[in-house]
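Hey team,

Filing this mostly as a record. A colleague (T.K.) asked me to run one chain through the structure pipeline before their review meeting, and I want the input and output archived in the tracker in case anyone asks later how it was produced. No errors, nothing strange. Just documentation.

Input sequence:
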Amino acid sequence: MTERSIKTIAVFCGPNFGATGNFAEDAMELGKALASQGIGLVYGGTTKGLMGVVADAVLEAGGVAHGVITESLHQHGQSHPRLTSDEIAPTLRMRKQRMAELADGFIALPGGIGTIEELMEVWTMNQLAEINKPVGLLNTSGFFDTFLRFIDHMVETKFLPVAQRHSISVDADAGRLIGLLRHFKPVNVSKWL
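Output structure:
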């Protein structure tokens, strides 16, 4: 099976740490895995929560971390001061667009509504063939299990083709998840049932 070239991965995650230390531990493991495999991080550019944890882990492991932060967050002093490189986007919409342009793939860690919104946008862009970039979920402590059941419900109620359900990679281990993204094959089915 041919491996996909992945030089950068955009990571979507929360500016909070979550209820247990497991979320930060897995964010750290993802950062280390990215650095050890020579994959650059693209992320939201702050020091807050899991966002800061994954960036710090990449940097401490000798990797490359590029932040794309909004002007508003930058003005509030939330820019990470130690990144390899960074840029300021005038709006959230432009920040997301820039992250999608820079990334060869995407991984969502646990987070809130912003994380889910970013995830759904790139997953939808793949479905519509606007991009061909793999999307994965780092399923720490089963965080995404309920979300995946909701996606299954979309399939069962005929709002999503079953093949699209499997167009997203899911694993609780960062290294295995990156491997799944490297072997991702785009789903070529009609979105209309």
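Quick notes for T.K.: The mean pLDDT is 95. The first helix runs from residue 21 to 36.
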